[in-house]
Design a protein that fits this description.
Layout lengths: L8 H52 L18 E8 L2 E8 L5 H7 L3 E2 L9 E2 L12 E7 L2
Helix pairs in contact: 1-2
Length: 145
C-alpha cells in the first residue's frame, strides 16, 4: 500500500499542542520582563529629571522656569516637576503618572513613593504635568539654598 505524502491530522494537532504549551510557558516570563523594564525606565527618567533640576539649581540658584530648559525629548504628558519653599529649604518633586511595579521603582530609586504627603503649596514648573492622580510616582529632594 502506498503512503501519501504530508501530515495526518493527529500529527498536526500534536505539533500545535507542543507549540501552544511552549508559548504558554514563555508569555508570563516575557510579560514580567516587560513590566520590570517599564519600572527601570520610569526610575531612570525620574532620577535624570531630578539631576537636571539639581544642576540647574546649583548653577543658577533657582528652579528652571520650564522643563524645556533642562530636558530634551521629554514627554510632557508623562512627567512633571513641582516645588515648595519651606523652612527646611526648597523641596522639589519630580512625578509621573505612568504605571509600573512599585517594587521595581523603589529598588532602583529608594526615594520614590506612590503617595505624597502635604501636596498643597506646590508650584508646578511649566512644560509638564500639572496635577497628581492615583498611582502617581513621586521622587522628592529638599535643597538648602
Amino acid at each position: 500500500m502506498k503512503r501519501k505524502n504530508g501530515f495526518t491530522l493527529i500529527e498536526l494537532l500534536i505539533v500545535l499542542a507542543i507549540i501552544s504549551s511552549l508559548l504558554g510557558a514563555f508569555i508570563p516570563s516575557a510579560s514580567a520582563t516587560l513590566e520590570r523594564a517599564r519600572g527601570v525606565q520610569i526610575a531612570f527618567n525620574l532620577g535624570s529629571i531630578m539631576r537636571a533640576v539639581e544642576y540647574h539649581i546649583l548653577l543658577h540658584g533657582k528652579l528652571p522656569e520650564s522643563l524645556d530648559q533642562i530636558t530634551r525629548d521629554l514627554d510632557s504628558e508623562k512627567y512633571g516637576v513641582a516645588a515648595r519653599n519651606g523652612s527646611k529649604g526648597l523641596t522639589v518633586v519630580v512625578f509621573t503618572k505612568q504605571l509600573a511595579e512599585e517594587r521595581v521603582v523603589r529598588e532602583l530609586l529608594p526615594g520614590a513613593v506612590l503617595s505624597l504627603d502635604q501636596s498643597e503649596g506646590l508650584s508646578f514648573v511649566e512644560g509638564g504635568l500639572k496635577q497628581f492622580e492615583d498611582g502617581t510616582f513621586f521622587y522628592a529632594i529638599t535643597f538648602l539654598l
